[in-house]
Design a protein that fits this description.
Elements (H helix, E strand, L loop, with lengths): L3 E4 L3 H12 L6 E4 L23 H4 L5 H5 L2 E4 L4 E5 L4 E4 L2 E4 L2 E4 L3 E3 L13 E3 L3 H7 L8 E5 L3 H12 L3 E6 L11 H13 L3 E4 L3 E5 L6 E4 L4 E3 L2 E4 L3 E3 L2 H5 L8 E2 L11 E3 L4 E5 L2 E3 L4 H15 L11 E6 L2 E7 L6 E6 L6 E7 L2 E8 L2 H13 L5 H5 L5 H6 L1
Helix pairs in contact: 1-8
């Protein structure tokens, strides 16, 4: 029976291993993870867990006993350092793991500030794994002063957590506006107003010149000439796919590990799933950074490793929680040329619908779950509602599905 090795013990790796067993694979499964704990949820890390509202064990995707009970050989605190494609082995933690089929679920790594401007000072944090959050947690306290660098969803969520804790928060975004790469200006306007109403000093078109401090950060100089006194810095300037292991093994790389529609890399014995992988999608190539993609792609890859031959063709969806606002996103808005704003039925609820001419591309729903669900169903069906009817708050959304 095939020996399957999975490098990466995050959401994608755990989902892939569980799906292999659910689909009836009876051969050996080995999962290699760098962290000392079993696979866990990442979204609550920077929210409930950071605020002390969720215990560590509640983060775990499955009880630790699940892996032994299902014959999954879980190797924790091991870093995979090399793949020998000729011998079909992975070197990790001083061990050699032979495989017949290999799955790379290595995820992504956060971008960090250069050391030349103080990025290596103590008190400068990124938000990616358990260690990152455990390190920053003591600094999240009422009266503290925080600088958040980056106005994407990672930065905005970090700013919300700090503001809710009673900190004095400054957020800087070097681009002309927040959410510049991922959302329309209407959605950016909504979240800018939300954060400023909660006391965040949000500055767009403003960069970080340098951080100040001897061993620990104590301040920052901004491109607008401002100097800030600080207790901590949170860096949210994006992530990059973790491809070093694959690249060293000679696999094709294209904005991540390049896979075919089934998730197979340039080596037929090696597959990839999750944040680290790019795949063909609607005439182009796509890499998604989301829990949904990690689960769905991993489960599709697991089935394909066992011979299903199914193309991965997702309708992307995402979410973000900030203060008392839940943003739900369906689709991808890149290439839109107009946005339809649909007023919500309660205070603070609204949805923004992205169109390219008359074709629906995506929807951003703020505290509007019904709008999100209808938009997602329309996108999955490849249907586009009439824009005028959509903008009319008197239009029943169910009627758009039936039209």
């Amino acid at each position: 029976m095939k020996r399957i090795v999975i490098v990466g013990a995050g959401q994608a790796g755990a989902s892939l291993a569980a799906r292999l067993r659910a689909e009836g694979h009876e051969g050996a499964i080995t999962m290699i993870g760098e962290e000392p704990v079993p696979p866990y949820q990442r979204p609550p890390l920077s929210k409930q867990y950071l605020m002390g509202e969720m215990a560590l064990e509640r983060l775990f995707l499955r009880p630790e006993s699940f892996y032994a009970e299902n014959g999954i050989d879980l190797h924790l605190s091991e870093t995979a350092v090399a793949i020998d494609r000729a011998d079909r082995t992975v070197i990790a933690g001083g061990h050699t793991h032979p495989y017949d089929t290999l799955a790379l679920c290595t995820g992504a790594v956060p971008r960090r500030l250069p050391g030349a401007i103080g990025g290596e000072l103590a008190g400068v944090h990124v938000v990616r794994d358990l260690r990152d959050v455990d390190t920053m947690a003591p600094a999240i306290r009422a009266g503290g002063r925080a600088l958040v660098v980056g106005g994407g969803y990672i930065g905005l969520e970090a700013a919300a957590v700090c503001a809710k804790a009673g900190m004095e928060v400054t957020l800087v975004e070097a681009a002309p506006r927040i959410l510049g790469r991922v959302a329309c200006s209407e959605t950016a306007d909504y979240f800018r107003a939300l954060h400023r109403a909660r006391g965040v000093d949000l500055r767009e078109g403003t960069g970080l010149e340098r951080l100040v401090g001897e061993d620990r950060v104590t301040g920052a100089a901004l491109s607008d000439g401002t100097e800030l006194a600080l207790d901590m810095v949170i860096v949210g300037i994006g992530i990059t796919p973790a491809t070093a292991l694959a690249e060293a093994a000679g696999l094709a790389i294209e904005n991540g590990i390049r896979t075919d529609a089934e998730g197979r890399s340039s080596d037929p014995a090696i597959w990839a799933a999750g944040d680290c992988a790019s795949f063909p999608w609607r005439g182009g190539r796509l890499r998604l950074e989301s829990v949904q993609n990690a689960i769905d792609m991993a489960e599709t890859v697991a089935r394909n490793m066992l011979g299903a031959g199914v193309a991965y063709d997702p309708t992307p969806w995402f979410w973000s929680d900030q203060y008392d606002v839940k943003l739900q996103i369906a689709g991808l808005g890149q290439g839109h040329d107009r946005v339809v704003v649909r007023p919500g039925t309660t205070t603070g609820s609204v949805s923004h619908w992205y169109f390219a001419d008359d074709t629906l591309l995506a929807v951003d729903a703020m505290n509007a779950p019904r709008d999100y669900m209808v938009g997602k169903r329309l996108l999955e069906a490849g249907r586009s509602p009439d824009r005028a009817a959509l903008a009319d708050p008197g239009t029943d959304l169910k009627a758009l599905l039936a039209a």
